[in-house]
Design brief:
The protein has 137 residues and is α/β, with parallel strands linked by helices. The protein has one domain: Hypothetical Protein Ychn, Chain: A, CATH 3.40.1260.10. It is 47% helix and 18% strand. Strands 4-3-2-1-5 form a 5-stranded parallel β-sheet, with helices on both faces. The longest helix has 20 residues.
């Protein structure tokens, strides 16, 4: 009976550890011309691991792709990519400090976004409090 209990506990611990490994924060702080590659990385990540929980945290120039009608230098719009990823469960969080500093209206953001007080603090919180892995594309 004791061996069965120990086996159960070890299995449960393994499952819990696996669940924690499946949470990732992508921290985007760079401008429009680098975001297309990051979005491609996120889609590839989802394709390889459909059960992963992904949160994209943005601040500084990294928020630009989440402003309505944003395009990179090649004319690629981001709204469709963001909508597609959001439909797959990806969350997009925008730094309110950046909005305030740049005098940007929160209504200019894509509807898939959520404001957080600080992008840097949110990225840290997800890692420390919620066990997310950190990726800086």
């Amino acid at each position: 009976m004791m061996k069965l209990l120990v086996s159960f506990i070890l299995t449960l611990n393994t499952l819990l550890a696996s669940a924690q490994d499946n949470k990732v924060v992508y921290h985007i702080t760079t401008g429009l011309d680098t975001v297309a590659a990051a979005m491609s990385n996120i889609q590839n990540h989802l394709s390889a691991d459909p059960n992963v929980k992904i949160v994209v945290v943005t601040n500084g120039p990294g928020i630009d792709f989440l402003i309505g009608d944003a395009k990179d230098s090649k004319g690629r719009e981001f709204s469709g990519m963001v909508s597609d990823l959001a439909s797959q469960g990806v969350e997009f969080k925008v730094c309110n400090n950046t909005l305030v500093t740049r005098n940007l209206d929160p209504d200019s953001l894509l509807m898939e976004t959520k404001l957080v007080p600080s992008g840097v603090a949110e990225a840290a919180r997800l890692q420390i409090k919620e066990g997310f892995s950190y990726i800086k594309p």
